[in-house]
Amino acid sequence: MNLAIDMDGVLISNDEVWADHYNKNREKHGHVCEAGEPDSWDYFTNICKTCFHDCVHSHDIMARSPAMPGAKQGLRYLTLMGYTLHLVSHRAPNMRATAKQLLERHGLLDHFKSVEWSWAPKVETCERLGAFALIDDSPANLESLVGSGTAPIVFDHAYNRHLKHMRRVRYWKDVPDVVELAWLKGYATRQLREANEQLVSQLSRGNT
Q1: What is the pLDDT of residues 95-135, one digit of tens each?
Q2: Measured CA angle at 59 (ends 154, 40), to 5 deg
Q3: CA distance 77 to 81
Q4: What b/e sequence results for 69-107 when a residue is b if at least 16 CB atoms lie within 10 Å of its CB, and e otherwise?
Q5: Number of Cβ atoms within 10 Å of the Cβ of 208
Q6: First to last CA, the chain
Q7: What residues form DSSP beta bridges with 152?
Q8: Beta strands 2-5 and 84-89: pairing type?
Q9: For a Cys-Cys bond, which of 42, 63, 67, 157 suits 106, CB 3.0-4.6 Å?
């Protein structure tokens, strides 16, 4: 039961430290940011690309990022439920060592069987891992899973609320139940597909 989980916006909360950085440099763009304000994925980029680059590539800013409330407990519960966890992140190569240290400091890293740092589309990484679901906050990553063998689970933010007809979680305390539903639905779908394939095979043999 392989489960893929994103880092930024799911395990790690970036909103407050990013907003703090923007506000310290607001003379560059004349806009005051508040944590939780973004209502579109490119919100920060549209305000100031320089500040956005700072946030994505600053070791200091990343090092100050807190864990999502309840993430550590949620990961532990998922492993106790029998899920094999894989961290899947598009973090840039120059930031990966700092990201690993951050995850270790928050007590999150030990719960993962593997850490997949890759620029490859997450739908491809999930397929390679055999992941039945991916918990992510990026609209692009989640939409890419539609029609694949990996179920998208949306970690709720204002910038992804336009996504419909996907399982959604707002707090880590709700993650285990939603993951269980995704697994059960996927299991039922797989059983039905296998039964149909067996039936088709039997009918085919009966007609020869």
Answers
A1: 999 999 999 999 999 999 999 999 999 999 999 999 999 99
A2: 35
A3: 6
A4: eebbebbebbbeeebbbbbbbbbeeebeebbeebbeebe
A5: 4
A6: 38
A7: 134
A8: parallel
A9: 67
State if pTM tops 0.90.
no
Residues whose CB is less than 8 angstroms from the CB of residue 99 and which lie 6 or more positions away in sequence, other chains included: 7, 62, 89, 91
How many residues belong to the chain? 208
Q: Which amino acid is at 143?
A: E
**For 8, which DSSP code?**
B
- Mean pLDDT value across residues 182-192: 62
Q: Which two tokens stand for residue 30?
A: 């004349």
Q: Contacts for 31-40 with beta carbons within 8 Å, 24 or more apart?
A: 36/158, 37/158, 38/157, 38/158, 38/159, 39/158, 39/159, 39/161, 40/159
How many Å apart are CA 32 and CA 38, to the nearest integer?
Answer: 12
Is the distance from CB of 151 to CB of 132 less than 8 angstroms? yes
Rounded to whole angstroms, the Cα distance separating 23 from 34 reads: 9
